[in-house]
Amino acid sequence: MSTMIRTPLLAALGIAAGMLAAAPAMAETVKMSATLEAAQEVPPNDSTGSGMVDATFDTESKKLDWTVEYTELSGPATAAHFHGPAGPGENAPPMVPVSGDLASPLKGSATLTDEQAAALTEGKVYFNLHTAAHPDGEVRGQLEKSAM
């Protein structure tokens, strides 16, 4: 190959390699879920309530979308929150409140901060439903990555 052809070809390959190296990581949509139960509360309680959280998290926009379904609580839900950072068996303050009508099913979304997004992807976020009989939380579930 002549020098005249090889030099531009090598320059083009170098530029292409540089662009690939500088490209940001691809965005990902992560499916999350949690089983809500009284046994996960800290401390556990005797509620027969149960439920499920299904959520998706867009790693680029940091948008969390959720649907929460529950049944058999001791009374109407008085509050609902995503709490963190905390692992199973640990308590943490609310980090994303759920507002509006708290009747099942709950649907909503929020854009997370970098710190909240890190806690979520590290498995350090739980969902908690509160009632008058259980103001500290009646049913709770740790969010975990699940299959799409």
Summarize the helices and strands and which ones pair or pack.
Blueprint: H1 3-22, E1 29-37, E2 50-58, E3 63-71, E4 77-83, E5 94-97, E6 106-111, H2 114-121, E7 126-131, E8 139-142, E9 144-145
Antiparallel strand pairs: 1-2, 1-9, 2-3, 3-6, 4-5, 4-7, 7-8
Strand order of the largest sheet: 6-3-2-1-9
Structural class: alpha+beta
Helix content: 10-25%
Tell me about the largest β-sheet. Answer: 5 strands, antiparallel
Q: What is the CATH domain class? A: Mainly Beta
Oligomer: single chain
Spell the H/E element sequence: HEEEEEEHEEE
Q: How many H/I helices?
A: 2
Mean pLDDT over the full residue set: 88
Q: Any idea of the CATH topology?
A: Immunoglobulin-like
Radius of gyration: 22 Å
The CATH homologous superfamily is termed Superoxide dismutase, copper/zinc binding domain
Number of domains: 1
> Which stretches are low in confidence, meaning pLDDT under 50 for 5 or more residues running?
9-23
CATH architecture: Sandwich
Q: Strand tally, please?
A: 9
Strand content: 35-45%
What does this molecule look like?
The chain is α+β, with helices and mostly antiparallel strands and 148 residues long. It has a single domain (29-145), classed as Sandwich (Immunoglobulin-like). Helices cover 19% and strands 38% of the residues. The protein has 2 helices and 9 strands. It has helices at 3-22, 114-121; strands spanning 29-37, 50-58, 63-71, 77-83, 94-97, 106-111, 126-131, 139-142, 144-145. It has a 5-stranded antiparallel sheet with strand order 6-3-2-1-9, with no helix packed on it. The protein has a 4-stranded antiparallel sheet with strand order 5-4-7-8, with no helix packed on it. It is globular. It starts with a helix and ends with a strand.
